[in-house]
Amino acid sequence: MIEICSKFSERLEAHSRRMINEDGLKAGLAFPTGCSLNNCAAHYTPNAGDTTVLQESDVCKIDFGVHVSGRLIDCAFTLHFDPKFDDLVNAVHEATNAGIREAGIDVRLCDIGETIEEVMSSHEVELNGRTYVVKPIRNLNGHSIGPYRIHAGKTVPIVKGGEQTKMEENEFYAIETFGSTGKGYVHDDMECSHYMKDYDLHSEHIPLRLARSKNLLNVINKNFRTLAFCRRWLDRLGETKYLMALKDLCDK
Questions:
Q1: Which residues contact 209 (CB under 8 A, 6 or more apart)?
Q2: Within 13 Å of residue 171, how many CA atoms lie on the same side as its CB?
Q3: Is 64 exposed, middle or buried (CB count within 10 Å of its CB: 0-12, 13-18, 19+)?
Q4: What Cα–Cα distance (Å) separates residue 18 from each residue in 6, 14, 232?
Q5: What are the C-alpha distances in Å from 192 to residues 16, 231, 233, 250?
Q6: Where do the domains of the chain lie, and which CATH numbers do they carry?
Q7: CA quadruple 216, 221, 226, 231: dihedral positive or negative?
Q8: pLDDT digits over 14-45, tens only?
Q9: Which residues form the Peptidase M24 domain (predicted)?
């Protein structure tokens, strides 16, 4: 995937940095550009050395965002080249728009999820002579967004039966939908590429024994605070030989 991330995603990130007038933690990228392929639903950006190349038959989810003074936007689109995936992409697009129309002050989050599932599941896609109902991925959700906090505590389900918590005035949300021709359930896999400090613990003192871990934490606090980041961004800052320290921070 380095072909798309080093060329497309790096260009996208560079363009976003210019447009937002990147200025440290005052304005910049909100999280690493996602380039999730095929059965990888989300939250993957290539690490250095990844040689995967985007193919004509691939379905690639591009996820990107910027922030100003910690106010984030979370945006995504699906990139595909084979028209056989048009119906799949259209199903998810229509479900997303239905969720946006349903959203509003005092709307129950579970009602948004039920609407999204109803619209998405009404679509079918034919692939290689077999017909599939488009299923929402039930353990992926939209979410509320807060200052310097991409996931601010509330989740917006994309299936019926979710919590009855309501949207409130002055809240910000990402309405995210994920459609699948598979089982509609994801699990962790592949090499980790996204990192982020635990927002609820970011102001607490965590004792660290390794000097390299302390130094890396200072770099993270200075450049990202509680925003998500990736190893490519540490590389860009000139950090080297940090994997052991990064693992130590994750373990803590």
A1: none
A2: 22
A3: buried
A4: 17, 6, 18
A5: 24, 9, 14, 11
A6: 84-187 (3.90.230.10), 194-251 (1.10.10.10)
A7: negative
A8: 999 999 999 999 999 999 999 899 999 999 99
A9: 20-179
Give per-residue pLDDT as tens, 183-242.
Answer: 999 998 888 889 999 998 888 888 899 999 999 999 999 999 999 999 999 999 999 999
E strand intervals along the chain: 27-29, 34-37, 59-64, 66-68, 71-72, 75-80, 124-127, 130-133, 135-136, 142-145, 155-156, 172-174, 179-180, 194-195, 229-230
Q: Which two tokens stand for residue 227?
A: 């925003």
Structure tokens at 129: 């002579």
Provide the terminal-to-terminal Cα distance of the chain, rounded to the nearest Å.
Answer: 30
Contact in structure between 37 and 31 (CB atoms under 8 Å): no
- H-helix or E-strand spanning residue 121: helix 109-121
Tokens of 187: 């699990």
